[in-house]
């Protein structure tokens, strides 16, 4: 009897372990993405989590790799980026980056409501520097590894431009594309320029 | 500016110098007594025709509403996003999972009834009548929780070279110093208005008692600050008072009245075996109505009820109800698809989320008891802010100590950025300034960064007076038959009593509508 109980307990333990391990890769585990990034990963301004749906798979994968390696999000001042560090690392360790990207790709992407307003005409002038890589309509360019900018979380675009400028992104030598952006953000020297260019991007379709 | 003191002015001054106990005692001395009042549980009418209620979130507010509505005949379903019920009422024990974004942890405490950690609420004040009523009704056994212990330590790098001193020494020497200062400066001719010469005598006597001053109104030390030694074969030896200028170097002077605030007391209560015994009690009654791992994605308020879409087992599922009671944290609700009025939804992103942080450490010996500390809290102005000693399991071998509990969002973020192991390392380094051998006793620990905990991503909503004025009514008022709930929609966020109050408000409103004939239209 005692022996049976012990075996029973051992089996229960194995099942419990399997549940814990299993939950990390279970089919609905990516629902965790939606907790922060909102329904259909269309973003949640409430906790400053950007829209992910509609992002290019290669861009999402690269950013998750960067978060995992610390090439992005390492500076403590970049609190949301820093929070993504361990998330990227876990996905990487479990070989789940591609599956996560696929999950996001299947979601119903909606154009987010604008939160940034500025001088659109001025933003249009400034955008000419951006258009060569990101496209005249903000549609992105896979060949140049430049993601689309149109229909993204506008507050997030502004935050990232500030992060590039302040050395919170694009400073790690492994993040070569980020380094390019860090150099190019010099064309937007003050906060008003950033607001204006994002306000213009909001008009792109 | 006049030097004359009115009654009110004196009370204000006494409050600033001595904490609210001083005000209370002075109020009693002057014949002014405070009144206490609280709302009570709504008595719901039994339903005449069936009504479906969908409750989003199985925390304390959701479970309270489920319990009350179900027993009056409502068709209740509770959707909970997490793998567990309880919300922020969360106790961890041996083997429990701590579901933090990026840093999932497993609690490795020994399997033992006394070795648990209350990650969220951990103490109940005697005036939280509604919660206490539920404890009684749900057979949740309560035990004393020791909240304020004058034998515990106070430590600040700014004073006494960072050396900890006993709370009783800190508090009573400060009081003696303040009482002497006031007694010396209080002149009979300065009293105005309703105050009389007789009041002056009373005030001076009150100050003497408050600070234990000598017949000449001097503070020369007191046994209240603890004796130099407790060798009872010798006469008592009073300690020399600490230097007032050294005491003033610490900002602690300004927060030493924490234990006097309305929700705090020297003795409070905790459920035996962990705060989540309350959740267990509710779940015994309504657990069969709760569906876990169901994360809401969309809420559509219509003219005849509400439609909710949620994800369960990787699938989208739709549910319709006559009423929806929504306990989802507002900052997460902001990311869910909905058709709420713009003004209502704008509130979701307007109230900052709390970033409270806690650490629990299993200690291989109850070393603090050898220091004469049985329960209570040591305070420090380092990041960890507090060390709590368990009031349960006294004189047993091991105990779980709360090794950090931060209120400051910057401190919360600082800890949250670190890995769990690094968090514990930092807490041990800081705790070692209070207990020199601290680190040697640590066996294992858990860390809880509430703003990174899944399905919460925040602690109590950080309301202030302006925000309440601007948003509270908007958020509390139902939209159609959709109600926002939780401690976030109360004037008592961060307390279970606030969560219960919000649930009572919503169900009382539903009850009124049903009594009026079940009008569900917006």
In words, what does this structure look like?
Chain A is mainly α and 205 residues long. Chain A has 2 domains: 28-110, Orthogonal Bundle (Cytochrome Bc1 Complex, Chain D, domain 2); 113-205, Cytochrome Bc1 Complex, Chain D, domain 2. In chain A, 56% of the residues lie in helices and 0% in strands. Chain A has helices spanning 2-25, 31-37, 57-69, 79-93, 97-105, 120-134, 154-165, 176-184, 191-201. In chain A, α3 (57-69) packs across α4 and α3 (57-69) packs antiparallel against α5 (97-105). Chain B has 522 residues and is an alpha/beta fold. Chain B is 32% helix and 19% strand. Chain B has helices at 7-29, 60-70, 129-137, 167-185, 197-211, 244-248, 252-255, 277-286, 330-333, 342-348, 367-370, 409-417, 420-431, 438-441, 465-476, 496-515, and strands spanning 52-56, 75-79, 91-92, 97-98, 105-106, 117-118, 142-146, 153-155, 165-166, 267-271, 290-291, 295-302, 305-312, 315-321, 323-326, 337-338, 357-363, 376-380, 386-389, 399-406, 442-449, 482-484. In chain B, the strands form 7 sheets. A 5-stranded parallel sheet of chain B has the order 11-2-1-15-22, covered by helices on one side. Chain B has a 4-stranded mixed sheet with strand order 9-8-18-19. In chain B, strands 14-13-12-16 form a 4-stranded mixed sheet, with no helix packed on it. The longest helix of chain B is centred in the N-terminal third of the chain and has 23 residues, at 7-29. The termini of chain B are far apart. Mean pLDDT of chain B is 91; it is low at 10-25 and 31-38. Chain A binds chain B through residues 16, 20, 23-24, 27-28, 31-32, 34-40, 42-47, 49, 76, 79, 82-87, 89-90, and chain B through 81, 83, 95, 97, 101-104, 106, 293, 295, 297-298, 311-314, 330-337, 348-349, 353, 413, 416-417, 419, 452, 454-455, 457-458.
